[in-house]
Every structure is written in structure tokens, then in C-alpha cells.
Amino acid sequence: MLTIRTAAKLLNLSPATLYRLVAAKQIPHIRLGTGRGKILFQEPELHTWLESRHVRPALETSTNPAPNPRPKKSSRLNHLRIV
């Protein structure tokens, strides 16, 4: 079982960030006791949670960039005159 401090070091987070994740119930944890209680983490669950947060790169479907739908700056508002 890991404490807030050791879990924060393992995840490379600040303890404050880890407390926020716990409060939002966004990270698996165990709370012992009533009220505030003691917060503990199981290392395998943290590794699973961390792996689930991986952002995979999107598959590139085209090598050509999408065309810009906006007209070029020089061709905009040429029909207007400032009085």
C-alpha cells in the first residue's frame, strides 16, 4: 500500500494534484477510517490507471493538409470603403 506522498512520487504528480484526483474520485484509492480517514493506493491499480490515461497518436489518413476555408487576407473586405 502506498501513501499520498509515495503515490505522488510514483506518478510524478504533486500531492495536491493527487488529493484533487481523490476528491473527484478519478483515481482508484482506499480510504481507511471515518471522515477524512487515511488515503492509500495499491501500486498495481495505479499502474493500470496510468496505462488507461495513455493518449495514443491518431492515425494519419492523409499527408496533405486540409485546405484553409478562409479567404486570403488581401481578398477580404476589398469591396468596402472607410469613410
Automatic annotation (TrEMBL):
One of its GO terms (molecular function) is DNA binding. Residues 54-83 are annotated as: Disordered. Residues 1-53 form the Helix-turn-helix domain. InterPro entries: DNA-bd_dom_put_sf, HTH_17, SinI_DNA-bd. Residues 70-83 have a biased composition (Basic residues). Pfam families: HTH_17 (PF12728). This is Excisionase family dna binding domain-containing protein:: HTH_17.
